[in-house]
Amino acid sequence: MIRESFEKYKNWRRLAVADPDLIAELCGMLPEDTEPDSVVPEELSAECAEKIESAFASELSFGTAGLRGVIGAGTDRMNIYTVARTSQGIADYIKAHYAAPDRKVAVSYDSRIKSELFARTAASVFAANGIKCYIFNRLMPTPCLSFAVRYYGCSAGVMITASHNPSKYNGYKVYGSDGCQITGDACDEILSALSGIDYFFGVKNRPFKDCFAEGIVEFVSEEAIDAYIAAVKKESLIGDAAIDRNIAIVYSPLHGTGLEPVTRILKESGFGNITVVKEQEEPDGNFTTCPYPNPEIREALSIGLEYADRLGAELMLATDPDADRVGIAIKTAGGHKLLTGNEVGVLLTDWICRRRIDTGRMPANPTIVKTIVTTDLADRVAESYGVRVVNVLTGFKYIGDVIASLEAVGHPESYILGFEESYGYLSGSYVRDKDAVDASLLICEMFAHYRALGMSLLDRLEEIYGRFGYSLNTQHSYYFEGLDGKERMSAITAGIRKGTEEIAGRKVLRALDYLTGIDGLPASDVVKFTLEGGCTLCIRPSGTEPKVKAYISVSAPDRETAGRIEAEIAAAVAGIMKA
């Protein structure tokens, strides 16, 4: 294996000369002043061999999430060559399926290291292939990209982001003409095309400045951005209602893309008492104040929580780098409490249903869409309002597919909410991905609405528990780093499938293996167990990181009982992962 990887390495040493950072990294894989042609691969030191194997033994995999990987030199890294090659594959797909007038692509990017460079690289490849490209002139969130695809009638879209991953990562999300992340046949066809494209000689490319000067690349217009903001405003369920909108809000974009659109939508909707976390206001691909910029993690919100405590703010919001997810904390007598994605999803389910009924805006055959790893409490709440719930695989693209299917039969208005436990929410069909701008507006409106009634969000959550029972939902991640990480993950998930009869002393009442395709859903490497006592356990490998995720859901009479049961199941799962 090292000989094959070393041949690839030597090829990159000769040809990867367009990015000085890559040249320096490639040279650093061998001892100083060592010429590659003088090296016998099998005699490399363990350290040098590991660097070369890690970068070249495999290719960065392309899937339904596009690309995501560590930034650096090599075929298994995010760099201008892997980005250009992928863009060529997408260009080939577009030319095979769309007539020349319809060959258009929208491109956006977040604040990550090299994001703008990668975005312009992609735009240059599309332009060199005769495909019109609309690129944002500044960083903009994922939902803005999804909107731009439909606004310009594009055949595809690309978002350069690695979402909430650590700073060493970047990624490349691919969207179809419907503004939804690609799935199924499109993904398979692009993957097949990539196998025949050489990193250096199989890619058409031209200088970005030349493409821009000729007009085949142009910036997304301010009118398009205004149209996106207007579409989000239409999702308001408060409108001009006379309620106090002067709630004290602390907001952090976590060094990402959310600053402009989130503060704009809130201020234009009357929520003007906003304090932005200064330390996290500016874009920073190193995420120096929050090494893991994930609003699910309390540490990422620590500076914002300090602001909220110091200022006595009633509500704190934080969006992830590409602003498609939002986390919140609310003021309590004991300090600010973070709400989970499941809790916020249940609250939004309840509030949107109730508010639409009260205002006469509930459509015929209303539908809420959620993922199979998201709390079942939302199903019970929605059904109490007569709202249909559709459960889909993990990934908002599957929620987008349901929106598209409703639109195809002429009833996009039937969709009233989609959400997943990982803090992603969307209440309208104007985009096809989760939208933290929309969610921030809804959360602030919901907060103000209940405050006008003399209630907090926690008060309303307790009322829901009182009616439907207490629900505890947790997620645990188990990492499998290294070259053999994928094999170890596969072995563990394969073992779980082999007739598991009990977990933590609780009998398995039902086991759903989604790898075979269930309820019309695509095949997916997910197993969900229903255990006696009202518990579920869902296990799936991550599609973007070397880890296996376990989702535990416990229904119990009270918090103490639920916590004890959850701990027992979590301990059993941890044992399985170490086996």
Proportion of helical residues: 25-40%
Our measurement of the CA-to-CA distance between the termini, rounded to an integer number of angstroms, reads 28 Å
Number of helices: 18
Class by alpha and beta content:
alpha/beta
Low-confidence stretches: none
Description:
The strands form four sheets. A six-stranded mixed sheet has the order 1-5-4-2-3-6, sandwiched between helices. Helix 10 (259-268) packs parallel to helix 15 and helix 12 (341-358) runs parallel beside helix 13. It contains 18 helices and 21 strands. By secondary structure, it is an alpha/beta fold. The chain is globular and about 75 Å long.
Layout of strands and helices, then pairs:
Blueprint: H1 2-15, H2 20-27, H3 46-56, E1 67-70, H4 80-97, E2 104-109, H5 115-128, E3 132-135, H6 142-151, E4 156-160, E5 169-176, H7 184-194, H8 208-214, E6 217-219, H9 222-233, E7 249-252, H10 259-268, E8 274-276, H11 302-311, E9 315-319, E10 326-332, E11 335-339, H12 341-358, E12 367-371, H13 377-384, E13 388-392, H14 396-408, E14 415-420, E15 424-426, H15 436-452, H16 457-468, E16 470-479, H17 485-497, E17 502-503, E18 506-513, E19 527-531, E20 535-541, E21 547-556, H18 559-578
Parallel strand pairs: 2-3, 2-4, 3-6, 7-8, 7-9, 12-13, 12-14
Antiparallel strand pairs: 1-5, 4-5, 9-10, 10-11, 14-15, 16-21, 17-18, 18-19, 19-20, 20-21
Helix pairs in contact: 1-3, 4-5, 4-7, 10-15, 12-13
